[in-house]
Amino acid sequence: MAGEEYTRLYSWGNDPKRKASQHARDIIGDDSVDIEILDVSKWWINKTVAEYYSDGNIFCLGDMVYRHPPFNGLGSNTYIQDAYNLAWKILYVMSRRVGRGLLKTYSVKRQPVGVDIITRTNQGLRDHHLWMRAIGMTEPDVEKRKAVLAEFKDKGEVRRRRRQQFHEGIENTGTEFHGLGIEMN
Ligand SMILES: Cc1cc2nc3c(=O)[nH]c(=O)nc-3n(C[C@H](O)[C@H](O)[C@H](O)COP(=O)(O)OP(=O)(O)OC[C@H]3O[C@@H](n4cnc5c(N)ncnc54)[C@H](O)[C@@H]3O)c2cc1C
C-alpha cells in the first residue's frame, strides 16, 4: 500500500490493540501490511441523565447531561433540539421581550426528554439481542458462531427455524426503524 492511511476501528473485549490489528488485517486481506495502532479509547454503554440541566447562568446540553447507547439516532438530534430550545429563550430574554424566568423552563422542558432518550435507547439495545442471538453473534466461542451460521445453509427444519428466529429478531427492532418522528422529541 503506497503512503499512509488512517482509519478508526471498533473492537470489543480484552486486548483491544491486538484485536484491532487483527481486525484491520482481516479487512485488508493482506497480513504483510504494516499496521500501527495509534490510540485506543474505551467507550461504555451508559444509562445516565443529569437531574437538572441548568443552575443560575450555567446551561448544559448534549452528552454532558445524558449518556446512552447509539440507537434510534437520538444523541445528536436531541442536543440540537436542546440547543434550539435554549437559543430562542436566550434571544427572547436578551432582547428584553420576556423576563429571565423563561430560562428556568429550559431544564424543566428538556430534562424529561433526556430521561426518555436514555430509556428508549437502552431498550433499543435490548431489542437487537434476538437477531444477534439468531445468527450466533452472542456466542463467545468462534467455532460455535460458525456452527450457528452454517445452520442457515441446512436444507431442512434447522434452517427454517434459524431463519424464523432471525426474522423475529428483525421484527423486534421495529420500534427503532419504524418510529417515525421519534427524533422530534
Ligand atoms: C458509536 C456512536 C454512534 C452514534 N450514532 C448516532 C446517530 O446515528 N445519530 C445521532 O443523532 N447520534 C449518534 N450518536 C450520538 C452523538 O454522536 C452524540 O450524542 C453527540 O456527538 C454529542 O455531542 P456533544 O457535542 O454533546 O458531545 P461531543 O460530540 O462529545 O463533543 C464534545 C467535544 O468537547 C471536546 N472537549 C471535551 N473536553 C474538553 C475540554 N476540557 N476543553 C475543550 N474541549 C473539550 C471533545 O473533544 C469533543 O470534541 C452516536 C454516538 C456513538 C458513540
UniProtKB/TrEMBL annotation:
Keywords: FAD, Flavoprotein, Oxidoreductase. One of its GO terms (molecular function) is FAD binding. It holds the Pfam family FAD_binding_3. InterPro entries: FAD-bd (IPR002938), FAD/NAD-bd_sf (IPR036188), RIFMO-like (IPR050641). Gene3D superfamilies: D-Amino Acid Oxidase, subunit A, domain 2, FAD/NAD(P)-binding domain. Coiled coil: none annotated. Residues 17-120 form the FAD-binding domain. This is FAD-binding domain-containing protein. The lineage of its organism: Eukaryota, Fungi, Dikarya, Ascomycota, Pezizomycotina.
